[in-house]
Every structure is written in structure tokens, then in C-alpha cells.
């Protein structure tokens, strides 16, 4: 934990004091906030909707095995294929097997955080298979050689001037190109990729048990092209994406749109249930259901609801830590509060647990979550587990143990004066307190001591 925490703190300090970077992030998040406020005004009984979403996800996760089997049976009955992948390596092995069998050398991808989780692009490129991101934000970070900065807005950290300069470098466009001109160029550039690609790879916002369908939400239409033009459509979805019924989309699609971008509904909402008919689209449709640590999190009853996340990004947008240190500082796929909660369990606990300590515990993430996930309580549970596993450094455990024994005992606390206490603080605590905060000072006399002295004087 120590080295990962040190790297995190180093990056965090660099980003937090980069005024231009913070200006961009806070500007972009403010635009989202304004839209979301307006979006929420259009929803009646919003607290009731959030509770219903929580209850539906709670039911789906507690009966996950049943709903997944139901989805598999219904989907395969229509001609699709389901593959279960325990790990990221298993998923990659299955994907390359499908592509090699069909002799596919180029794929197009719609936006998918699950593919980022298993590092699909890097894997396929090593296998000499060309991969083209087709979401505009994902395309921008791909050609920049970067990862998504935000789970909803991959290029949130870039200004329009940054993107203009990037397109000038990569494609020779005028560096002063407008966002509309850049978008038009990208559309034309990708159109040929859609035509040439042998496979389209998408994620899934939801997988629907009772109809055996995959629900995909987007604003650009690139996912539609990714899954209709190529002859093979591969869906990569986490096990937790299942919902019981297609009727539940009436709840989740508006919540996702409102909390994610402030829209009434996202522009394109697709429900795909099978391969296409002969000559009218992909002849194969394969859904890869990914575990990759999810059942480990599922086994923890108090943490299980973290898997109910619908990836709207609201907790990132409200988090004071995220807004100060940015997305790349986390060095994980899922950033912000939700990433700090789930990554220790779906990844390496010791490597990622420091993220659960990088929180103000203000509760804003819980307050804005459309599925009512108690995120800040889960951060505390992660901290508790870290302590029980003795992952927290020995010096911190020593300090907390001894501090508790003193602070919980008034006689011990009053044994010495403020001057000695301040020396102890400087020697044992100042380094952990950090050089960005002023270490508090003990008064020369405690309130208890002054109270006793005053009472003694009054008696006299």
C-alpha cells in the first residue's frame, strides 16, 4: 500500500496545484451540474424513483444467479451465444478466439468502461488487430494515447484548443478548427472504419433477464453503427448489469440520462436481442459476462449494493476530491467515489485501498446517487477492512491505538500541559498530518483543568 499511496499523493499534489487543469475540470463539471439540476426538475417524486431503483437493483443482486441464467436461456433461444469469463484474461482469450476464427483484422468499438477494465485495446493491438474507438470522446483520448479521464466524459480534461491542436498534429486540420468542424471530420473519418470492420464491440448499460436483451444507451449513434455494420457483434458486460425485466428500463433509462447528462432521455436507446436476419446485420452476436472480482464483492453483504451502480458519473461530478485531483490520479479504471469503493475488491485490495482513505466523507456522493448507494459508508467499511487486515502502516496503527487510550481517558489527557502535548504532536503526528495543513495546537491548559481551578477559587 505504501508505494501506491506515495505515488497517488505525488500525482494529487501536482494536479491540485495546476490552476489551468482545475479551471477546465470545474468549468466542465459546472455545465453538467446546471443541466442535471434542470433535468431533475422534470422528474416527479424523485426520491421515490431513487428508492425504487435501489430496491430493483437490490433484488437483482440478491437473485443474481437466477437472473443471469434466465438471461442466458432467453438470449441463446434467439440465436445468440453467451460466454462466462471469470477473469479479464479469460475474457481476452475468448475475444481473440472469436476474432481469429473469423479472421478479423479490424474492429470498431463503442464506449465501454468494461473494455477499459480488461485493457482490451492494448491486448488487440499486440495481436496486430486494429482497434478504432468510435465515441468522440473515446476517439480523442485514443489518438492522444491516453485513457478515459471520466467514466461518462472521457475527454473532460481537454479544452477545445487542446483538441484542435491534437487534430492538427494527427490529421493536419487547422489548429483553430471549431468543435463542429472537428466532429464533422471525425464522422467522415470513422465512416469508412464502420464499413471495413469485421467486428463491432460494445458494452452494455443493462442486460435484461426476461427478454434476453442487451440495452445500450448513447448520444452519438456510433454504438448503433458498431453493432449493425460488422458481421460479428461482441458485447462485454459485467455480471452486475442484469435487471429483472424490460419494464425496469422505464425507470433506469430516464434516471441514467438525467443524472448523467441532465437529459430527459439519451438520444439513442437500443434493445438488442439476437443476431440479425440473413444479410441484414451481424450474423453472430456474442455476450461475454465478466466476473473479474465481482462475485468477491457480491459475497460481502454490506458492500454488495456497490454493484448496483449504473455508471452515471454523478458521484464523480460532486466529489470535492475528484474535482481537485482529477481522474488520472486514481490510476484505476473506475475513478471517483464509486471507484474508491469497488476497486479494492475487484482489483488488488492492498494496491487500491488507499483510495478509500482519499475522501472527505462529506456524503455528497451518497446524496446524488440515483440508485441510493451509501457510498461514503462503504468507504468507511473499506477502511475498517484495511485495519482488520493490518494493511494500514504500523506507525499509523501505533499512533491511533495510543491516541485512543489517551484521548478517551480524561486523567491521562490532563497529566501534562499543552506545551508537552504540542511537542508530542510535532514529533509523532506532523508528518502524517501533511505539509498542506496547519497542525492544531493544544492550549496551555485544558478546559477540564481550567474548570477545576475556577471551582476551587469559588469554593475559597
Main beta-sheet strand count, sense and barrel state: 6 strands, parallel
Briefly, what CATH class of the largest domain? Alpha Beta
Q: What structural class results from the helix and strand content? A: alpha/beta
How many beta-strand segments?
10
Strand content: 5-15%
Overall average residue pLDDT: 93
- Give the helix proportion (percent range): 55-70%
Low-confidence stretches: none
How would you explain this protein's 3D organization?
There is one protein chain. This protein has 3 domains: 1-39 and 311-392, no CATH class; 42-292, Rossmann fold; 402-459, no CATH class. 55% of the residues lie in helices and 10% in strands. It has 25 helices and 10 strands. Strands 1-10-7-4-2-3 form a 6-stranded parallel β-sheet, with helices on both faces. Helix 16 (336-346) packs parallel to helix 20. It is globular, with a radius of gyration of 26 Å.
Tell me briefly what this model is:
This protein has 460 residues and is an alpha/beta fold. It is built from 25 helices and ten strands.
List the main descriptive attributes of the protein structure presented here:
3 domains, six-stranded parallel sheet, four-stranded mixed sheet, Rossmann fold, 460 residues, globular, 10 strands, 55% helix, alpha/beta
